[in-house]
């Protein structure tokens, strides 16, 4: 960069501030008697008016919340001096999937389980592909929503300045597409009554569950997922007894010298309660499939970590409600599923909770199956022109078949 005269010019404003910090002093004026009046009996009167005194002010309404003092954390009824490590929907793990495997004591597999793969293509819907392509266009193009969009950036042309644009927000695109796909799955209820009677949907489903990691590190997982499908019957285990027994010899990843809890927030306000999201006696208490929308720009590994953590949280909350918080060995495994999407690419997670013993990394492990980067369609953004020139190509019908396989898993077809 060429140094010009303007850059070499001194900032007198900055210089004045520095001098004022060192030498600037405000002195109150004092009354001093002149020397020629010192020996004369003359009373000196301060000409400055005295400052009036007012009674202390208070709000007209004593309990007006606008003028209440800022509450302290220590005054909260759920405050604890000992903090817990909190994992929520905004927690971004440094090592992503690897770190989540350590925290949940889990052995990974990188394909869908056998009992789910057998269901791919087992059921179909009339005009299935045509309807899904219309859903894609409805979410991305046909929606009349017009809101100011974030400023675009293209790493290939960093100097290019994009114009301000209005259109459909990214979160709305994902929500619209997810709702339409779920409604298409629910249309199977007329053909298979078990899907209609044995499934319940809950938007913004909340879960909260805690456990002790390696004896002295309490971890609290809490947050909401966009949609939760629950069932009146538990999912069958994804892994057989032989797979569970062989997990004893599996070694968890190692992050030494970094602690796996490094990215978890220290939380002093928490409740030692187990929340599944359902009242006691609910007819469909078993978590079946979680649906998460990813409006961030995280890596695939970090998204897998979030999906794994919330599948684990729902399974753990159900285990604590059924068997108590002190149980270490489960009578039978608890299985959950998860579907994550950013509006075009889908990631699938199948989790099986086998043990509640988190004192060490030895012994039986929990199991998880990942199936990543399933592109339903290719969304080609224009390089320099406006977003209205976006192209949608390469529709893949196999992606929805996997979504449908997870949906009908556990039902009598």
TrEMBL record:
A GO cellular component annotation in the UniProt record: ribosome
InterPro entries membership = mtLSU_mL37 (IPR052482), Ribosomal_mL37/mL65 (IPR010793)
The UniProt keywords, alphabetically, are:
Mitochondrion, Ribonucleoprotein, Ribosomal protein, Transit peptide
Taxonomically, which superkingdom? Eukaryota
What would you give as a GO molecular function for this chain, any one? Answer: structural constituent of ribosome
Q: What is its main location?
A: mitochondrion
Q: Where is the signal peptide?
A: none
**What GO biological process terms are annotated to this protein in UniProt?**
translation
Cellular compartments annotated: Mitochondrion
Q: Name one Pfam family in it.
A: PDCD9
What family does the Swiss-Prot or TrEMBL record give for this protein?
Belongs to the mitochondrion-specific ribosomal protein mL37 family.
Q: What is this protein called?
A: Large ribosomal subunit protein mL37
Write down the species: Ridgeia piscesae (Tubeworm)
Lineage start: Eukaryota, Metazoa, Spiralia, Lophotrochozoa, Annelida
């Amino acid at each position: 960069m060429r140094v010009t005269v303007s850059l070499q010019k001194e900032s007198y404003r900055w210089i004045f501030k520095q001098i004022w910090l060192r030498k600037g002093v405000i002195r109150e004026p004092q009354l001093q008697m002149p020397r020629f009046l010192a020996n004369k009996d003359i009373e000196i009167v301060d000409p400055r008016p005295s400052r009036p005194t007012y009674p202390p002010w208070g709000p007209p309404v004593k309990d007006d919340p606008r003028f209440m003092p800022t509450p302290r954390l220590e005054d909260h009824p759920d405050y604890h001096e000992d903090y817990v490590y909190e994992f929520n929907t905004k927690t971004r793990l440094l090592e992503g999937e690897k770190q989540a495997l350590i925290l949940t004591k889990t052995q990974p597999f990188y394909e869908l389980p056998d009992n789910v793969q057998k269901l791919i293509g087992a059921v179909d819907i009339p005009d299935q592909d045509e309807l899904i392509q219309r859903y894609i266009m409805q979410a991305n193009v046909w929606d009349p929503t017009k809101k100011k969009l974030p400023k675009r950036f293209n790493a290939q042309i960093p100097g290019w300045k994009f114009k301000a644009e209005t259109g459909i927000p990214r979160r709305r695109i994902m929500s619209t597409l997810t709702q339409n796909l779920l409604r298409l799955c629910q249309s199977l209820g007329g053909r298979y009554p078990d899907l209609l009677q044995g499934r319940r949907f809950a938007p913004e489903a909340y879960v909260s569950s805690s456990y002790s990691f390696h004896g002295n590190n309490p971890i609290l997982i809490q947050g909401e997922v966009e949609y939760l499908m629950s069932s009146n019957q538990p999912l069958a285990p994804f892994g057989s007894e032989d797979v569970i027994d062989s997990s004893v010899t599996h070694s968890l990843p190692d992050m030494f010298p970094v602690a796996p809890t490094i990215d978890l927030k220290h939380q002093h306000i928490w409740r030692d309660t187990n929340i599944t999201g359902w009242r006691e006696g609910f007819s469909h208490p078993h978590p079946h499939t979680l649906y998460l929308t990813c409006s961030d720009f995280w890596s695939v590994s970090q998204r897998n970590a979030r999906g794994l953590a919330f599948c684990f949280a729902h399974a753990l909350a159900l285990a604590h409600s059924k068997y108590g918080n002190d149980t270490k060995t489960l009578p039978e495994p608890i299985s959950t599923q998860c579907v994550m999407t950013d509006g075009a690419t889908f990631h699938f997670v199948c989790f099986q909770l086998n043990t509640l013993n988190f004192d060490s990394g030895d012994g039986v492990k929990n199991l998880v199956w990942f199936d990543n980067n399933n592109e339903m369609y290719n969304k080609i953004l224009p390089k320099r022109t406006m977003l209205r020139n976006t192209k949608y190509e390469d529709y893949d019908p196999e992606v929805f078949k996997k979504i449908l396989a997870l949906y009908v898993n556990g039902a009598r077809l």
